[in-house]
Amino acid sequence: MTRKTDTQITWKTFSEGLWANNPVFVMLLGMCPTLAVTNSAINALAMGLATTFVLLASGLLVSLLARYIPKQVRIATYIVIIATFVTMIDYIIQAISLDLYNALGAFIQLIVVNCIILGRAEAYASKHRPAKAVLNALGMGAGFTLALLCLGLVREILGSGSVFGVDLFGPAFQPWVIMTLPPGGFLVLGAWLLLFDWFRLRRQQKETVTGGQSDVA
Amino acid sequence: MSKPTIELRATPHIHAPHDVVKIMRNVVFASLPMAAWSIWSYGLSALLLMLAVVASCLLTERLFNRHNNTLGDWSTSITGILLFLTLPPGFPAWMGMLAGFIAIGMGKVMFGGLGMNVFNPALIGRAFVQAAFPVAITTWIPAFFEGRFTRLIPSTLTPPFTIPPETAAWSQQVAVDAFTGATPLAVQKFDHVAAPALHLLTGTTAGSLGEGSALIILACGLYLALRRILDWRIPLAVMAGTWPSAELFHWIDPGVYPDGLFMLLSGGLMPGAWFMATDMVGSPVTPRGVVIYGLLIGIVTVVIRLFGGLTEGVMYAILLGNAATPPDR
């Protein structure tokens, strides 16, 4: 394993996961939990925080152990490390709230195979120092949690008329049943992607229009 | 559009007799008798719902195509009218407008506009509201109810985003003798009583707005087939898929499964076969492909109707047929 020499910690180390390389909206990783458990905001938040914890802890450990892990078995080793922390968070959620645990179902255990975590371990944590790895994992986790919340809020507001279980519109509200069902996940994800792509295109257009001037300035 | 006096371009020089605008205009004309019949059967509410759905479709198309005027080709209007014909009579107008928005926005514009849509846009809109509002879309009103031209069905003008009021008691109060709000398919499925074919032909049974009279639908469809605007093989193949498979089950257990004629005339099969499955973009072009496509729709419809949780399956069958059609043309 070759370690990069740059040890500078910049704002980008953290913010990469929030916007430029947001795991859900830009990299389109971890679609399984993104679509499956975002039918309410609380589920989305819990899943986001659990994933953040696993990202953080596994990132730290992988970064610390990277030089001792033989290259041939590194993926298996990462999975063992990740699985350890997933088991921990699995029990922690059970202890905090059994309702939440039942709502999230198998998707807590499935964090093990979430591409974001393995991808970060392989592409970032194993090549950077612990401090950077932790900060980057924190950013990625925050980006993932935010994205899940974006989906969960829309789906809960339209699908149940509430936010974090708090009723918003009273009993007359007609829930859009489709939003709490699997198709709702795909629809809302597609709508968010459309929105972000639209913003990006607009910014690109603005940059090409004012490109020459900004170079001078 | 003025035609140039001399055409300067590469071969072939043969003119097709139809263009998009002419075809779409004809489909609109052909669907108007069905719309008129639905308004005759369900009165002001149907008229209001039609205006709401078509307006929503046109507005959505305008919203997403601000720079080039695409409203003039009639294709959006036809989506609106067809979507309206698939909805139940007492469907709240705001849900109809949402369906129109989804039909055009997600069924058509998202794929690249007219000619690029993989699925029939009207059915996309209906599939969305079917999944979103399962109660409202299965609430039926008896046809020819009392005072249909002077008052609205109570659920039509439900304020946006609210639950439509219960209409069961109201329906019973205004229903003319022997007209019930239960659809023939539901009665058949749960009570195993098939409605007589004559009632289905003349449209005295309850159902979606466009499912009323099989005779009128047949006449409108034949008009389009004679003008060569729809491929006559498609509706024939759909019926050829439906009738034998229904007869097969009827032969196995006549007490539970209805006969083929009932299957053909009830529910949305007629409008589906003539107006939805024949959507030029979503259906195949080769003669053999058309036959397979039609048979698939017919058989899937029977399977969903007899063994699915829903009473009607034409919509999903056609969407599946659309999905099975290769888009590269």
Structure characterization notes:
The complex is a heterodimer of chains A (217) and B (329). Chain A is mostly helical. Chain A has one domain (12-209). Chain A has helices spanning 11-15, 31-36, 41-65, 74-96, 98-104, 115-123, 130-160, 177-180, 182-216; strands at 162-163, 166-167. Residues 212-217 of chain A have low confidence and may be disordered. The relative contact order of chain B is 0.12. Chain B is an all-alpha fold. Chain B has helices at 20-42, 44-64, 75-86, 93-107, 121-132, 168-174, 184-191, 197-202, 214-226, 233-252, 260-265, 269-276, 287-307, 314-324. The chains are: A mainly alpha (217), B mainly alpha (329).
Question: Gist?
Answer:
The complex is a heterodimer of chains A (217) and B (329). By secondary structure, chain A is mostly helical. Chain A has helices spanning 11-15, 31-36, 41-65, 74-96, 98-104, 115-123, 130-160, 177-180, 182-216, and strands spanning 162-163, 166-167.
Largest interface: A-B, 11 and 13 residues
Shape of chain B from CA axes?
globular
SS-derived structural category of chain A: mainly alpha
Mean pLDDT over the residues of chain A = 88
Strand-and-helix sequence of chain B, N→C? Answer: HHHHHHHHHHHHHH
In total, the number of strands of chain A is 2
Mean pLDDT of chain B: 87
Low-confidence stretches of chain A are: 212-217
Please state roughly what percent of the residues of chain B sit in beta strands, choosing from under 5%, 5-15%, 15-25%, 25-35%, 35-45% or over 45%.
under 5%
Main beta-sheet strand count, sense and barrel state of chain B: none
The beta-strand count of chain B equals 0
What's the number of structural domains of chain A? 1
Which percent bin holds the helix content of chain A?
55-70%
Helical stretch count of chain B?
Answer: 14
Compute the number of helices of chain A: 9
Which structural class do you get from the secondary structure elements of chain B?
mainly alpha
